[in-house]
UniProtKB/TrEMBL annotation:
Residues annotated as transmembrane: none
Domain of life where this protein originates: Eukaryota
Designated name of the protein: RNase H type-1 domain-containing protein
RNase H type-1 domain sequence ranges: 2-68
Length: 101
Protein backbone atom coordinates (compact mmCIF):
# COMPACT_ATOMS: atom_id res chain seq x y z
CA UNK A 1 0.00 0.00 0.00
CA UNK A 2 2.87 2.40 0.78
CA UNK A 3 4.28 1.79 -2.70
CA UNK A 4 0.89 2.26 -4.36
CA UNK A 5 0.43 5.64 -2.69
CA UNK A 6 4.07 6.73 -3.01
CA UNK A 7 4.56 6.94 0.76
CA UNK A 8 8.07 7.17 2.21
CA UNK A 9 9.48 7.32 5.75
CA UNK A 10 7.09 4.57 6.80
CA UNK A 11 7.30 3.17 10.34
CA UNK A 12 5.74 -0.27 10.76
CA UNK A 13 4.90 -1.15 14.34
CA UNK A 14 4.26 -4.56 15.85
CA UNK A 15 4.05 -6.02 19.32
CA UNK A 16 5.96 -9.13 18.18
CA UNK A 17 9.54 -8.58 19.36
CA UNK A 18 10.77 -11.80 17.70
CA UNK A 19 9.51 -10.60 14.30
CA UNK A 20 11.20 -7.21 14.67
CA UNK A 21 14.47 -8.91 15.63
CA UNK A 22 14.31 -11.27 12.64
CA UNK A 23 13.58 -8.38 10.27
CA UNK A 24 16.31 -6.14 11.66
CA UNK A 25 18.95 -8.90 11.87
CA UNK A 26 18.95 -10.90 8.65
CA UNK A 27 19.82 -14.56 8.86
CA UNK A 28 20.02 -17.27 6.28
CA UNK A 29 17.19 -19.37 7.65
CA UNK A 30 15.98 -21.70 4.92
CA UNK A 31 12.57 -22.34 6.47
CA UNK A 32 9.29 -20.57 5.68
CA UNK A 33 9.95 -17.87 8.28
CA UNK A 34 13.31 -17.00 6.72
CA UNK A 35 11.80 -16.81 3.24
CA UNK A 36 8.95 -14.62 4.49
CA UNK A 37 11.33 -12.28 6.37
CA UNK A 38 13.51 -11.85 3.28
CA UNK A 39 10.43 -10.97 1.21
CA UNK A 40 9.28 -8.45 3.81
CA UNK A 41 12.75 -6.82 3.97
CA UNK A 42 12.82 -6.59 0.17
CA UNK A 43 9.43 -4.85 0.10
CA UNK A 44 10.46 -2.49 2.88
CA UNK A 45 13.65 -1.55 1.01
CA UNK A 46 11.50 -0.66 -2.02
CA UNK A 47 9.65 1.89 0.11
CA UNK A 48 12.88 3.75 0.74
CA UNK A 49 13.11 4.91 4.31
CA UNK A 50 10.90 2.26 5.90
CA UNK A 51 11.68 0.76 9.29
CA UNK A 52 10.31 -1.60 11.93
CA UNK A 53 9.59 -0.69 15.52
CA UNK A 54 8.59 -2.88 18.44
CA UNK A 55 5.91 -1.53 20.73
CA UNK A 56 4.45 -3.15 23.81
CA UNK A 57 1.18 -5.02 23.44
CA UNK A 58 -0.60 -2.48 25.66
CA UNK A 59 0.30 0.29 23.18
CA UNK A 60 -1.00 -1.69 20.21
CA UNK A 61 -4.65 -2.16 21.15
CA UNK A 62 -5.83 -0.12 18.13
CA UNK A 63 -4.33 -2.74 15.80
CA UNK A 64 -6.32 -5.47 17.54
CA UNK A 65 -9.52 -3.42 17.29
CA UNK A 66 -8.93 -2.87 13.56
CA UNK A 67 -8.20 -6.56 12.98
CA UNK A 68 -11.46 -7.56 14.66
CA UNK A 69 -13.41 -4.89 12.78
CA UNK A 70 -11.96 -5.93 9.43
CA UNK A 71 -12.79 -9.60 9.97
CA UNK A 72 -16.29 -8.73 11.19
CA UNK A 73 -17.07 -6.46 8.23
CA UNK A 74 -15.17 -8.60 5.72
CA UNK A 75 -13.61 -5.61 4.01
CA UNK A 76 -10.31 -3.80 4.01
CA UNK A 77 -10.03 -0.84 6.37
CA UNK A 78 -7.99 1.96 4.81
CA UNK A 79 -8.07 5.69 5.47
CA UNK A 80 -5.65 8.54 4.88
CA UNK A 81 -7.18 11.62 6.47
CA UNK A 82 -8.83 10.73 9.75
CA UNK A 83 -9.41 7.38 11.42
CA UNK A 84 -12.99 6.35 12.20
CA UNK A 85 -14.49 7.78 15.38
CA UNK A 86 -14.57 4.40 17.14
CA UNK A 87 -10.76 4.27 16.87
CA UNK A 88 -9.67 7.83 17.71
CA UNK A 89 -9.76 7.43 21.51
CA UNK A 90 -7.86 4.14 21.39
CA UNK A 91 -5.15 5.65 19.17
CA UNK A 92 -4.72 8.43 21.71
CA UNK A 93 -4.49 5.92 24.56
CA UNK A 94 -1.98 3.81 22.61
CA UNK A 95 0.13 6.90 21.98
CA UNK A 96 0.23 7.76 25.69
CA UNK A 97 1.05 4.16 26.61
CA UNK A 98 3.85 4.00 24.03
CA UNK A 99 5.39 7.24 25.27
CA UNK A 100 5.57 5.94 28.85
CA UNK A 101 7.39 2.78 27.76
Amino acid sequence: MALQHDLHDVVLETDCKVLVHKLQHPSMEQNEVGVLCRSIRRLLSDIGNGRWRHICREANEAAHIMAHAESRWNESLVWFDRPPNYLVNQLQLDSVTASTD
